[in-house]
Design a protein that fits this description.
Elements lengths: L15 H28 L4 H9 L5 H8 L6 H12 L1 H8 L1 H11 L2 H7 L5 E2 L2 E2 L2 E4 L15 E5 L4 E12 L6 E7 L9 E6 L6 E6 L10 E12 L7 H12 L8 H34 L1 E2 L2 E2 L4 H30 L7 H24 L10 H8 L9 H13 L5
Parallel strand pairs: 3-6
Antiparallel strand pairs: 1-2, 4-5, 5-9, 6-7, 8-9, 10-11
Helix pairs in contact: 1-4, 4-5, 4-9, 6-9, 9-10, 9-11, 9-12, 10-11, 11-12, 11-13
Length: 410
């Protein structure tokens, strides 16, 4: 007698709620984001009117991000992000940039911190707020252990005093809430770091250089300067008791557990991968339509094997990147550990795919693709960031290599 087949509890078919949300976000991306994308790319400014429109319909809101983060299959956020970035990566990042700061507090903070600070990262229609997660520094990008920003506790006033400079911060300097990774014990490297919330209007925090970028130009990226920034003790993410316990374990030779900044990046990798998938899909769809309508030598160029095979490879790559992204998102939501660095795999493949597919789209369009009259050149510029921020492709390969070999790959 044969055994009964077991159901896997996994489906590649999004739930009706996720499909409905996807169509709603896609409509916003098609009707609001895409028509404005070229203008805001040229202006290199935060698209406040677009954020306000998104807030009015509930798309830019804590409720939306929380609802999709808690969606049972894990596909809510990645499906939403793919649609937004299909619309435009720069505007998309302006709409989701507060999310990284929110994830940092939500995943590591106390219930009181989550309740107090997360709403202040989004605000309400007519009173938009932003959050900024600040980890990188001029001399500490991939090397998070080199972070020099210091946080010193003053017991008499129950305050932390922060000094240092952060860089490459999305919404840096214009955010209402800044979440800062700082060193509390330099002798411990990355294990001696903690994360702090800087409330709105705190004296000593200022914007430094605003960067003019190759792509994602509608997203604000800048330095954040911290000069004797004083924050109350309650602004240490997770609380001082937890920090003291972790430092005590380290002093006794124990494990510190997962570092908060790394935990934030790991949790966000499938979402970043989804952004890259959105850009890739946009380029694939545009190039495919162009290949069907562009006639050379008396026939559509899509009938040429050179073009059709390129489109075939593009389609296969985009689908593969999406499936890896969905797998990682599902695993994260359902509590499956990333034993083989599945989060890093999703970001590595999706980021590299975005660069390759957008370049191939330019090739299919030929000279037209190289001009700003067509969006593929912008998408190619935007795509490159996905092999750099939130862990370069090289860092992802190192993480995956460690998982595969079990060795300390460096």
């Amino acid at each position: 007698m044969s055994a009964e087949p077991q159901t896997a509890g996994f489906s590649l078919d999004p739930t009706p709620d996720v499909r409905e949300m996807r169509d709603w976000v896609h409509d916003f991306a098609r009707n609001v984001i895409r028509p404005a994308a070229a203008e805001w790319d040229e202006r290199e400014e935060t698209p406040w009117p677009i954020i306000e429109q998104a807030a009015k319909i509930g798309l830019y809101s804590l409720d939306f991000f929380a609802q999709q983060s808690l969606e049972p299959s894990g596909l809510g956020l990645v499906v939403a992000f793919e649609e937004l970035f299909w619309g435009d990566a720069g505007i998309g990042l302006s709409l989701v940039g507060s999310g990284l700061a929110a994830v940092s507090v939500a995943s590591n903070g106390t219930p009181d911190q989550v309740g107090e600070w997360l709403p202040q990262m989004f605000g309400t229609p007519g009173d938009i707020k932003l959050g900024a997660f600040c980890s990188s520094e001029p001399d500490a990008g991939s090397d998070v252990g080199a972070i020099r920003t210091r946080a010193v506790y003053q017991e008499a006033t129950d305050e932390w005093v922060l000094n240092g400079t952060k860089t490459w911060a999305t919404n840096g300097g214009i955010a209402d809430i800044h979440v800062i990774v700082a060193t509390v014990d330099p002798s411990l490297g990355s294990r001696g770091q903690a994360t702090f919330i800087v409330p709105p209007g705190t004296t000593g925090l200022s914007q430094g250089q605003k960067f003019r970028k190759h792509g994602i130009r509608a997203s604000h990226t800048a330095e954040v300067v911290l000069d004797d920034v004083r924050v109350p003790g309650r602004c240490l993410v997770g609380g001082k008791d937890r920090l003291d316990a972790r430092l005590a374990r380290l002093a006794q030779g124990g494990s510190a557990g997962e570092q908060a900044a790394m935990k934030t990046f790991e949790a966000s990798r499938p979402a970043v991968a989804a952004m890259a998938v959105g850009v890739s899909r946009a380029a694939l769809e545009f190039a495919s339509e162009y290949a069907n309508t562009r006639v050379q030598f008396g026939r559509p160029i899509g009938q040429n094997q050179g073009v059709a095979f390129m489109l075939a490879d593009m389609q296969a790559a985009v689908d593969a990147a999406r499936l890896l992204t969905w797998r990682a998102a599902w695993m994260a939501r359902t509590g499956h550990p990333f034993d083989h660095a599945e989060g890093s795999i999703s970001k590595l493949v999706a980021g590299e795919t975005a660069v390759r597919v957008t370049e191939q789209a330019i090739q299919i369009l030929g000279g037209n693709g190289y001009t700003r009259d067509y969006p593929v050149e912008r998408w190619h510029r935007d795509a490159k960031i996905f092999t750099i921020f939130e862990g370069t492709s090289e860092i992802q390969r190192m993480i995956i290599g460690r998982a595969v070999t079990g060795l300390d790959v460096r």
